[in-house]
Amino acid sequence: MPAPSSGIALFGYYRSAVEVASYLRTGDYRVVIIDNNPGNLDKARNAGYETAELDFRDDSELAKLGLGETIDTIFCLFPDDAENVFLTLSARALAPGIRIFSIAHGRSSVPNLRAAGANKVIETEEISGLRIWDIITRPIVTAILDHTLFGQANLNVMELPIPAGSPFIGRLVSELELESQYNLILLGTVDHKLEEHFVYSQQVQDARLQAGDILVVIGPVDAGASLIKDLQGTQG
Amino acid sequence: MTLLKNLLVQFSLFLEASQGYGEAKDFARNLLGNPRYPYKRYFDLGMILLVIVSVALLVYAVDNPVQTWMLWVEDFAVTVFIVEYLARFWIVGDMHRTVIEHLNQTEFLHLPFKLRTALFEVARVKWNYITSPLAIIDLLAILPSYRPVRLLRVFLLFRLFKLFRYSRSVHGMAEVLAEHRFEFYTLAFFMVFVVIAAASAIFVFEGAMPESTINSFFDALYWAMVTLSTVGYGDITPHTPEGRVVAIALIVSGIGVLAFTTSIVVAAFQEKLGELREHRVLSELERGPRFTVICGFGEVGQVVASKLAETRQRFMVIDLEEGRVRLATKRGYLAMCGDAADNDLLENIGVRDRVHTLVCATNDDVKNVFITVSSRRMNDGLRIIASAGSREEARKLTLAGANHVVSPSQIVGYMAAEYIGRPVAFEAINNILRGERDVLLEALRVGSETTVCGKEVSEIDFPGRKLLLFGIITSREWNVEDVPNLYPLEDDFCFIFKPAPHFRIEPGDILIIFGYELSLVHLRRELGGGQFRTGLR
Predict the structure, then answer these.
(1) Is 0.80 surpassed by the pTM of this model?
(2) ipTM confidence
(3) Which CATH fold would you assign to the domain B291-411?
């Protein structure tokens, strides 16, 4: 999980960027909007964002941004896939450790963006199509997720990392008694050794918790908060 | 006369009041004339079969001994044809209603009721029917069974013409030709003129010559026609130089006539090709269950279509661009070229009653709003899912009557925030939703009289089945104080997150469960309610 103060750069203030910025605003992030179109920058400034005018084609200008130092995540949100590929490639070369999120407007661009070094590629039209399909075929599940997990109600999917020195380290997951003690459902865990590999909770018998493991739980936000507190124990 | 009048009025009123009569007539109307009526297809198929069998038997009987069973089949076919003819005659207009309407009108205007006027009106409608081409064909199709008159055998052809009634494609073809009536009339006029002129000329030149084969004016006509059509049997040939000049002129104009005919037919079909394809799409949609319409076959529409095709759901695509429609057709989807903002088109595809879901995914937000408004006006119960470019448009689409609005940029924004905030959890849920993992999230409805009914949650042993009960949707009344984790939904339904172990499951409840496909299939069978695909109600 990134530190809350991490810097995020949004390239290209178009439709998608407007939405991304407004979602990120709710979190505690430093967001910079970058564009070479003064009109777009004006709009961003009027909406109250920090902006920077630079041409992403020029590596020296990109380097000045502090990629990998003050900026650890960039979003490539240009409407033109070629521009996103170019930007991804330049940014990856400048800062190998940076996280890159890019949008794509056609299925054919996805492998290009991945090859250029994007960590996450979202194909905008496909994702909307899939969402429409969900609404058509699984209205209940979609509605429930919309009502609960994705915002509207107080239920949430949370990922809770086990901090080093937590009193729970070495204990079995079942000993946490998430359901009865915390009013939470354990959807799965991410083993710190198998990076980003999600294990469904019913898949394994039980596991001993180790520092760095991540619990993926569903439940009321306050229940999650109290578990976080307990996980941190005296350390927190 | 007054007695008759009274009797007729009484009888009309009796018919109007009779439920059975109305139902019978509706049934006959549907069966004979409503292409959307499910049983019409079987009726049409049966009639086509009957026509073919009866014609085959009649042809067979020409130079073979007639057997008794053949006569029975023929009698049966003719009986069916007669009944059909009378039924069609019956369903044209409503005599009793015409009488009653006339009575009401005259009473309202204080005029004397004249039976004659009402009956004349009825007779006019019926006469119009009798003299319509298809009705004449029907009548003539009955005639060949009258064996003593050999000429009547010609009417066998009319029995084949009857097929026009039962097959839409044949009907469409006839319609195409009928639309070019004017050209055909011109052509026919020209042909008649040429044939008569050539026949007269050759008859004048060769009719009186002893060595000529033209013995009568009919021979001359026959020769002219055979030559004009470029068939040229050669049984009659001109023998004088004058006669041959006539033949040369006739041959030249014959080529012209043939070329003209071909071009008219080709042009007519070319014009109508799109429409014929449309007919095919429409008639395919009219059969079977209700379906989804996707307006706009852009990127979004294509994803929706491919997913729907994967899960074998019925849908059709409408797009303005010829190329996209071709692409959809190439992929095997039902597709139609047209403007979805056109009310007539929406009406034709059956937005009023045949469509359950409409997806507005054109790239034009203004158009999406327009389509949403007009389809909502046509059908209150329709589920409309629209794609919007921005939040403002999303608001407008909701106002216009869309049930769900999906905005690509908003989803990107949301996913971006999730990616930053909780990448693992988000990815996990997304993969489960996409079915990219072994684990799925499903909604299962509890059927009545199944083993699960009345049991407590703890008795079902979800963990033992490797299932994770996320929650239960129910429409029962609950006290917010009694049940923790209660979240109200629309329409008096509520969602209970992580129900307590002693929670009792009742029929109609919907279980929202994470689990492996195999365990879910197993549980689904046990629940008896099946997978849940439609809305809450």
Answers:
(1) no
(2) 0.82
(3) Rossmann fold (3.40.50)
